[in-house]
Every structure is written in structure tokens, then in C-alpha cells.
Design brief:
Elements: H1 5-8, E1 11-21, E2 25-29, E3 40-49, E4 52-53, E5 57-60, E6 66-72, E7 75-86, H2 97-104, H3 116-123, H4 129-143, E8 145-146, H5 157-163, E9 165-166, H6 168-181, E10 186-192, E11 202-209, E12 212-216, E13 228-233, H7 236-239, E14 242-246, E15 249-260
Parallel strand pairs: 8-9
Antiparallel strand pairs: 1-7, 1-15, 2-6, 2-14, 3-4, 3-7, 5-6, 10-11, 10-13, 11-12
Helix pairs in contact: 4-6, 5-6
């Protein structure tokens, strides 16, 4: 018997993270799959603080993203999340005026104003946004080496351009900053990425092409059609998977899993693709 389309497109994603908490702390966790109209999510989120289950307050974010706010006591906190997400990406979303304005502004990790000269000289000539974005992604893929543990929490797009190495968030920041510098709105999305090796949270770019958001990944490490959106924002400051807003807590361990039903699709990272 053939499976329904939604089953064939189902992805199973999740993560487990452990925190060492030194003082009473307030923690914001951003690991749940984003809600979207064309998808069905079956999920479980468990937070345990020193063997005691803890309630979390869900806060709505941009583009269906969700944050979970929790207050914890000193000791060990374990967060376990698992979800099955069924449904395709559908049509690329239209870009609103508000989104366009925000996605053209410089941000903490994407100082596009400081990259304007370089971006215009290298990528300003192609007449269409599609051609400019393709040229930028190709440049970053060819000139930046993917090297683990080569950047830190303060590394921005200019640091990545100079060092010519980084991880997925560094690739995404550089692509987004260069896009904005040549008048192409661009934003960052954190995602679960079936096929990524080694498995981790992944960061990609959404850029406006002909009035709609299209997803780009200059690392070329995972096929875009199977990506599962978590959070969306200007840069990693908006999409961090964990933020300690009060008190002291440190990440001890993190494991992530993301699988798609059936074989992973081929992706040449040149054609248009949408992120659900």
C-alpha cells in the first residue's frame, strides 16, 4: 500500500541538551520545529531539573518559531525534544514590506554597511537578485573553508571573510551580509538538517527572489528540500538555540538527530528552493 504524501515527506527531528546550572537561572530554549500551515507536527518536550519535571512557557516567535521560557534551580537540567513533522515546504512565502525593511538593515553579525564596497565591486553588476545571490553563494562556497571550532560567539561576517573559514552560521552570516550590501533582503534561519554530517543545528539564508523567500546554503552540506525550520531572524542573535537571560548556566552536552523519510533528495544548491 502506498503511503500518503504527508507520510512520505515526514521528517523526524529532535535533540537532547544538558545544562550545568550554578545559580537560579532563567533560560530561553529555541529548539522546537516552527509551526506552519501546511505541516503537521507531533512533538514532545521534556525539561527536568534535578529529577523534577519543569513547566515551560511557550512564546510565539517570527515565522511560526517558538521559544520556551523556563526557570531552573542550581544543579543539572536536561532538555529532551522529539518531533515528527509531516508536510512539504509548499509555495515560497511572499515577502512583506516589514520583512523586507528588516532584512535589508545591518545587524550585529551581518554588518552589511561595512561590506558595501567589497560587495558592490564583486556582486553589484548582475542585474537580477537571483544572479547576485547565486554569485554570492558560489563565492562563499569557494573561498570559505568549513572548519569546526574556528569561530566564537563574537565572530561576524567580516571576521569570516578575513579568516576564510568557519562553520554554518559563519557562512550564513557572510552570505546574508553580502546580499544586504547589494540590496537583496536576506535573513537567517536555524534548521534541523537531515543528511548533515556531523549532525548539528544548521544555519541557512533566506533571500528575496521576485518577491518570495528562497533558501540558500553556501556550505552545501545538506539538501534544502528536507530542512525543518526552527527559528528565523536577522542573525544568530535571534536564532540561538539557548539563551540564559538571568543567572548562570552552561551547556554540558548536546546531541541532535534529524532524518527524512526515504532517500535524501539531490540538491545542486543552484536552483530555487523554499523553506517551510
Amino acid at each position: 500500500m502506498s503511503r500518503p504524501d504527508s507520510d512520505r515527506q515526514a521528517s523526524r527531528v529532535g535533540c537532547t541538551l544538558t545544562l550545568d546550572v550554578a545559580t537560579p537561572a532563567t533560560v530561553v530554549i529555541q529548539i522546537a520545529a516552527a509551526r506552519r500551515h501546511e505541516a503537521t507536527i507531533s512533538e514532545r518536550l521534556e525539561i527536568v531539573n534535578n529529577t523534577v519535571p519543569m513547566p515551560a512557557q511557550e512564546l510565539a516567535g517570527a515565522i511560526g518559531g517558538r521559544q520556551h521560557l523556563v526557570h531552573v534551580e542550581p544543579g543539572t537540567v536536561t532538555v529532551d525534544y522529539a518531533a515528527t513533522v509531516a508536510g512539504g515546504a509548499g509555495m515560497p512565502a511572499r515577502v512583506t514590506d516589514e520583512e523586507r525593511i528588516e532584512a535589508l538593515r545591518p545587524s550585529r553579525y551581518c554588518p552589511s554597511d561595512r561590506l558595501a564596497g567589497m560587495a558592490q565591486s564583486h556582486f553589484g553588476e548582475p542585474p537580477t537578485a537571483l544572479e547576485r545571490v547565486r554569485a554570492i553563494c558560489d563565492y562563499v562556497w569557494r573561498h570559505v573553508a568549513y572548519v569546526s571550532e574556528t569561530s566564537g560567539p563574537t565572530t561576524d561576517a567580516i571576521d569570516t571573510l578575513i579568516a576564510a573559514r568557519g562553520v554554518c552560521r559563519d557562512f550564513a552570516h557572510l552570505v546574508a551580509a553580502l546580499c544586504r550590501a547589494v540590496d537583496v533582503p536576506a535573513r537567517i534561519a536555524s534548521v534541523y538538517a537531515p543528511g548533515l554530517a556531523p549532525m548539528d543545528f544548521h544555519a541557512v539564508v533566506e533571500a528575496e527572489i521576485d518577491g518570495r523567500w528562497q533558501v540558500w546554503d553556501a556550505t552545501r552540506l545538506a539538501p534544502r528540500p528536507t530542512l525543518v525550520r526552527i527559528a528565523t531572524g536577522r542573525d544568530a542573535a535571534d536564532t540561538a538555540f539557548i539563551t540564559v537571560t538571568a543567572g548562570r548556566a552552561e551547556l554540558r552536552s548536546l546531541t541532535i538527530n534529524a532524518t527524512a523519510a526515504g532517500e535524501l533528495p539531490l540538491d545542486d544548491h543552484d536552483q530555487l528552493a523554499a523553506l517551510g
